[in-house]
Specification:
Length: 428
Amino acid sequence: MIPPQVPFQIHNAQAQDANITGFFEKVDTNLIKLIQEDQLHPKPLMLCSGGTSSRCSANGHWTLDLRRNYKTINFNALEKDVVIQAGVNMNELLSHLVKENRIFPVGLSGITGIGYILTGGISPLSRKYGLAIDQILEIEGVWGNGNKFRKFKPGLLTLEQDINEWRGLCGAAPFLGIITKLRLKTNLLKPLYLWESSLSPVQLSKTIQIAESWPDYASLHWIWGDYIKAFAIVEIDSLGKMKDVEGILNQLPKTIDSKLFRISSLNKLKEMKVPVIENKESNKRYSEVLGLLGSPLLSRSYEFVKSIEEIMNLRPNKQCYLAAQQLGGNTMRASEGSTSFVHRDAMWKPWITGSWDPKSNDEKDKSLTWMVEAWSKIEPYCPGVHLAQLHDHLPWHTKEVNAAFKEWLPGLQQLKSTCDPKGILPPL
Ligand SMILES: Cc1cc2nc3c(=O)[nH]c(=O)nc-3n(C[C@H](O)[C@H](O)[C@H](O)COP(=O)(O)OP(=O)(O)OC[C@H]3O[C@@H](n4cnc5c(N)ncnc54)[C@H](O)[C@@H]3O)c2cc1C
């Protein structure tokens, strides 16, 4: 174990500033012994793979930081699958695969680590290829009880216990074990069109409705700050499909600032920034993110956008924002019971970001209160939760866990009672 004086640079400012007890960088016999003897207090042990969430470290807690010693990527040219260790981030994975003419459905940012994959992983290409968890073929790690495991995607002869464990690991792994290695399916690299534009609320509601009937190779995402920026990503399947691609692009609103780019892959996406007219906020911000899930909006898209407009009018500062990603297509086709991502009917993932100046408790309280208010406004349209960020330090953790796992929660809790009986990892 390493005392906390060693620099612990992580993306998330809140996690970076946490006054940790110390950290480990290897899942070795020493750490496993401490886990088995329940010697790491206070619990839970925090896990850091990409270091992008607020809960990869916490005041007074131990952190297991996998970023330095778990960096291997091995592409198997024959099977077209890839084995990654837990410290690989999505930029590194995609850059490696692109050289092999392959891709993985990474999310909107390449800085995320395998937490992106383990918590579901919604990509702009998920409608075509499925969620990131749908690409997992094999998982290696250590349960919260200290036992090592290696699990394979279930087949016809897989035992019920193994099927349950697989289901738990795909979407709820952070509650059950420490994942050290994943084997993942990859897909053929194809070029993409990226359309972006500022939209009015009415244009957004129309675009949402149009996008709901797009083919799987197109998806919409948007972000709302002082104004709305929307983005469409369309994969160019083959030259024969160019007419269809043009058809999709022609449906989009014609605005003064709309732009169309051709990009080679998702690692060429620019970081999505909150659209603000004048940023007066401090550079360093703390934040929490709450991800929701809901089915197609259809004719309710206008009232949904109106609700969001009301929320945005109440935001306590300019770095608090709302955004959304589109699911559907292949994310809907996987069976509800195959993974812990139970909201297979979801078409939209809106997420609420509350942000505050680290020095202002008042701003923090206002931002967290605004998040709860925003949640209750969006909940009628999006009752599910995408648990991509853990909030066991916040009062809404139980509600969030319930909304994330629904009827599967008791099964998951049962699994946790054997895989992590002492609660080494975050509570369910
Ligand atoms: C800029 C940005 C863009 C994003 N875009 C998307 C997107 O397009 N789609 C999407 O679905 N999500 C997106 N997210 C959310 C992101 O995928 C989740 O917050 C994810 O949990 C981050 O994982 P991480 O490894 O980067 O972070 P970390 O903070 O290191 O880990 C996050 C959580 O995952 C758990 N965890 C990490 N490593 C392990 C491990 N080895 N074993 C078990 N549990 C582990 C930990 O409990 C930790 O609390 C985005 C986040 C950011 C910051």
